[in-house]
Amino acid sequence: QVALVESGGGLVQPGGSLRLSCAASGTIFGLYAMGWYRQAPGKQHDFVAGISSRGSTNYADDVKGRFTISRDNAKSTMYLQMNSLKPEDTAVYYCNVAGSWGQGTLVTVSE
């Protein structure tokens, strides 16, 4: 069974940066594609970014150029570097690895 723990969320002003982490256990981390998703209040669960087992990445259009997904297989950890944050990025961010979900971490972008 895969266990995921997200961290790094918080309150940040518009234009600021945060780095989210997703630490995994209970799986051979390097074998899997994985990704980040988010859910804003009253909205659906949306894809944010994905990374393949070989490191290829893809992004939702509204975060391209601002967010960077990466992974460290030796640490069984995935990251999401978020720059130039906007109020509309406010959401609970979830990681997904091997079909399992973390508990989510809240990102709030506000003055």
Give the overall average pLDDT: 95
Q: What structural category arises from helix and sheet content?
A: mainly beta
Shape: globular
Question: What characterizes the major β-sheet?
Answer: 7 strands, mixed
Using DSSP, what is the number of strands?
11
Low-confidence parts, pLDDT < 50 over ≥5 residues? none
**N- to C-terminal distance:** 40 Å
Number of helices: 0
Helix content range of the residues, please? under 10%
Q: How would you describe this protein?
A:
By secondary structure, the protein is mostly beta strands. It contains no helices and eleven strands. It has strands spanning 3-7, 10-12, 18-25, 34-39, 45-51, 57-59, 67-72, 77-82, 91-97, 100-101, 105-109. Strands 2, 4, 5, 6, 9, 10 and 11 form a seven-stranded mixed sheet that branches. It has a four-stranded antiparallel sheet with strand order 1-3-8-7, with no helix packed on it. A hairpin with a 2-residue loop joins strand 9 (91-97) and strand 10.
Please render the helix and strand layout as text.
Blueprint (H helix, E strand, L loop, with lengths): L2 E5 L2 E3 L5 E8 L8 E6 L5 E7 L5 E3 L7 E6 L4 E6 L8 E7 L2 E2 L3 E5 L2
Parallel strand pairs: 2-11
Antiparallel strand pairs: 1-3, 3-8, 4-5, 4-9, 5-6, 7-8, 9-10, 9-11
